Amino acid sequence: MSSTDDPIARFTKMATDDPDNELAHYRLGQLLLEAKQYDGAIASFRRTLELSPQFSKVYSLLAQTYNAQGNRDEALRTAEAGFKIALERGDNMPREEMARLITDLGGTVPVVTPTTPLQLGGTTPSREAGGGFRCERPTCAYGAQARQLPKPPTADEDGRRIHASVCAGCWNDWLRNFSIKVINELRLDLSTDRGQAEYDKYMREFFGLEQPAG
Question: Is residue 24 included in any domain, yes or no?
Answer without folding.
Answer: no
